[in-house]
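Appendix B, example 12.
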Amino acid sequence: MWYQIFQYFKFLYKSTNQHGVHSPFVYDLITKCFYDKTNYQAYKTISEYRKELKKNKTQIAVTDLGSGSQKINSKIRCVSKMAKYAGTTHFRAKLIYRIVAYFKNENILELGTSLGIATQAMQLGNPKSHITTIEGCPNLLAFTKTIFLKNQVSNVNFVNADFQKALKTLNNNSFDLVFFDGNHQKESTLQYFNALLPTIHNDSLFIFDDIYWSKEMTEAWEIIKQHPKVTVTINTFYWGFVFFRSEQIKEHFTIRV
């Protein structure tokens, strides 16, 4: 926790908003998506889904294949507590909704389904999208599949597998958006990044969750930034955005959202 607090103050010192951003692509993304204050109807659906989860007292035996939760240590976890402490926040769910709506992403991959809060938001962002979401815990995935069926969330392909094994079967795919939200360890993050590079195209976007989870996770983020295929990155503290646009000069932005 102290590492994150210290890094957050460093982030605040370095970060800026749209002013001083000379890239038209990044400027438009910040002003038209990140800072979009429209109260979309989908926000109500996102909020209702979170409220439903926070009232759910189902107990799930959770198998953590990654770094686990920093706030919930028990292997038997209550859905309501997971939604409150470990799930995607309402703010971030609304942001990823706007991102998918802004870029109109069609082929989406999510590493780490959990309770499906981000999954649902992405599907709302583009109802025509096809989402593949991978979760290592079979009990958690079974619960989320059931609640998605109840809420009529469509076009989502659920995969229960270890990430590394699952990614070997996806090399021939092409993804518009990949959301890394299931393992916050340095070596694993870098392995997933490299494994998914064959799936990118010029307009692909990778989003890494919790880039300040730990010192090692931040080190992974810094290594990813320097990869020759990466042209633009945006650090929003809790998420790291990676673009591969060949027409862009290599630039790294630190933006308050």
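DSSP finds ten helices and ten strands in the chain. The mean pLDDT is 94.
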